[in-house]
Amino acid sequence: MPLKLRHQVTRFLPIALYCVSGFAQQAATPAQPNAPAKPMTGAERLQQWRLSRQPALMDDFGELARYRDANASLQPPAAGENRVVFFGDSITAMWKLDESFPGKPYLNRGISGQTTPQLLVRFRPDVIALQPKVVVILAGTNDIAGNTGPESLEEIEGNYASMAELARAHEIKVIFSSVLPVHEYTAEAGDMFTQRPPEKILALNRWLKNYCAASPNVSSVAPSVAPLTGCVYLDYFSAMVDDKGYMKKELADDGLHPNAAGYKIMAPMAKAAVEKALN
C-alpha cells in the first residue's frame, strides 16, 4: 500500500471504529417503556363509540332491518285486540314485556342507543304498519347524551311532535313517557350520568307534560285538523327520582337502565297509562 494512502487509513480508522461502537451501544440500549396512556374523557369515549357506529348507521340510520322480519311475520290485530307498541331505546329493548304484562298483545320495538331522529325514521314500519291502538314512546335520554350528534331541546321536541302527528293521522293513541332520571352512585354509572345533565332532563319532561296537557285543544287552534288522538303523559320520573334529583340507587345498577326493581315500578304505571289512553 502506498505510504500516503496508509497514513490516510490510519488517520480515519479510529473515527470509523468510534462510530461503529456508538451505533452498537445505541442498538443495545433497551427501549424505554411507553408512558401510560392518558385516560379518555367522557366526551372522547362518546366520540369513539359514535365512530364505531358510523359504518352501520351510514347503511341504515334508523336500523330498519332490526325488526323487518318480525314485522313481516306479524299478523294484523284480531278483532277487539288492543295492540300496544312499546317504542324507544335500550330502556324499552331490555324490558321483558311478557313478564310485566303476561298475556297482553304488547310488542317491543326498542333499539339500544337510539335517538328521536332514528325513532322518527322507523315510526312507519315499526309502529304505524303494526296497527296498534296505542304507542308508548320512551326516548330522549340518548338525544341529551348526543348519541347521534348534538341536538337542541327544540329539535328533540320537534321529533316528538312529528311522531304524535303521524300517530294522530293513523288514529293511534300516544303515550309520551318522561325521560328517566340518572344517578352517579355506582362505579358502573360513569358516563351515563355526566352525559345527561339533570336540568336538560327536567326541561324535556316539562315540554312533554305540557304537550300532552295541551293536546285536546289542537282542534280549536286548527279547526281543519282532527283533535290529537289521545296523548297521555306517563311520569316515570317522579316515581323513580330521589331527594337529590337523581335516579334512586336501588332502581338502576348502571345509573340509567332500570333493573328488575325499576321495571317493577314502571309496569303498573304503564298499564294505567294504556288504560287511560284507550278510554
What global shape is seen?
A: globular
| Main β sheet profile | 5 strands, parallel
Cross-sheet strand order for the largest sheet: 2-1-3-4-5
Series of secondary-structure elements, N-terminal to C-terminal? HHHEHHEHHEHHEHHHEHH
User: Could you name the ranges where pLDDT drops below 50 across 5 or more consecutive residues?
Assistant: 15-29, 217-228
Radius of gyration equals 30 Å
Q: What is the class in the CATH system?
A: Alpha Beta
Question: What is the CATH topology assignment?
Answer: Rossmann fold
Helix segment tally: 14
Percent of residues in β-strands: 5-15%
Q: What's the total count of β strands?
A: 5
CATH superfamily, called what? SGNH hydrolase
Average pLDDT number: 85
Q: Name the CATH architecture.
A: 3-Layer(aba) Sandwich
Instruction: Measure the end-to-end span.
Output: 114 Å
Question: How helical, in percent, are the residues?
Answer: 40-55%
Describe, in plain words, how this protein is organized in 3D:
- The chain has 279 residues and is an alpha/beta fold.
- The protein has one domain (42-74, 81-278): Rossmann fold (3-Layer(aba) Sandwich), CATH 3.40.50.
- Helices cover 50% and strands 9% of the residues.
List the helices and strands and how they pair.
Layout: H1 3-28, H2 42-59, H3 68-73, E1 84-88, H4 90-93, H5 97-100, E2 106-110, H6 116-121, H7 123-126, E3 134-138, H8 141-145, H9 153-169, E4 173-177, H10 191-194, H11 198-214, H12 218-221, E5 231-234, H13 236-240, H14 260-278
Parallel strand pairs: 1-2, 1-3, 3-4, 4-5
Helix pairs in contact: 9-11
